[in-house]
Amino acid sequence: MRYNGALLKMETKLANPVEYDLPIGDELVYMNHFIGKYIAFKWLKEICCVVCGKKTNKSFAQGFCYPCFISAPETSECIFRPELCQAQDGIARDMGWAEAHCLQEHFVYLAISSGIKVGVTRSGQVPTRWIDQGAWQAIKLAQTPNRYIAGLIEVALKAHISDRTHWQRMLKNQHIEGVELMEKKKEMIAHLSSDLQNYESEENEITEINYPVNEYPEKVKSLSFDKLEEICGRLWGIKGQYLIFDDGTVLNMRKHTGYLVELEV
Fold it and tell me: What count of other Cβ atoms lies within 10 Å of the Cβ of residue 224?
């Protein structure tokens, strides 16, 4: 069976294990079905911007042409640094977009992927954000009315905890053991100023995430359509936004958003 079209990042559903659907053009391909089977991607040498749809020679910020990269609200500085958000003051590239994405309830969370990290996500992106980062446990730390305040809390905690995921360790399933997220949440809350402590989330449920992986590789090597026209192999698992092949090579699907491909399964 063959599928043709532009790639988007995989859609996910929290199940045991996580379920993955890969959008290719107008099709939605259920990838869990192909784990253990041989699959082949062929890049058709075109990239289409996910905002304007125009062809671009290079993808910026995972799927944008350069004009959209510098002007689209999806690539505003506050997407990468929430503490810089100005939507609450009526300042944004697109206020309509900001009202739907920045001036909404946000969560600051703790998650364990490679190590323990702090992060920010819009409420509607829970647990998608955790799955995309390859976390195997996560807990809500704070609940805020907008992106800006969530960013202030994240910045305050960066002095005590990382905000990064080490993708190679995550894909090798090398994560720290013995961390109690509830205790770590209490510890992090204590580092906040009294005004930021007021946003502490009352939800203390720890979400556990299991991924559809037959066996984790000891070494990983990232593949890219920018260097290889064809990428193929036996699909051995999926974690985060990565396809893992049985030889330890991995393909970051989110990185190739907008790439026009043919998938044969």
Answer: 13
Residues 6+ apart with CB under 8 A from 34: 235, 265
Buried b (16+ CB within 10 A) or exposed e, 35-70: beeebebbbeeebbbbbeeeebeebbbbbbbeebbe
SS3 content of the chain, % helix, strand, coil (to 5): 25, 35, 40
The residue with tokens 């990382």 is 162
CB 181 within 8 A of CB 206: yes
Using one digit for the tens of pLDDT, what is the confidence trace for 4-55?
Answer: 999 999 999 999 999 999 999 999 999 999 999 999 999 999 999 999 999 9
DSSP labels, 225-257: TTT-SEEEEEEEEEETTEEEETTSEEEETGGGT
pLDDT in tens, 148-161: 999 999 999 999 99
**Phi then psi dihedrals of residue 94, to 5 deg:** -150, 105
Q: Angle at Cα 27 formed by Cα 21 and Cα 29, nearest 5°? A: 30
pTM: 0.95
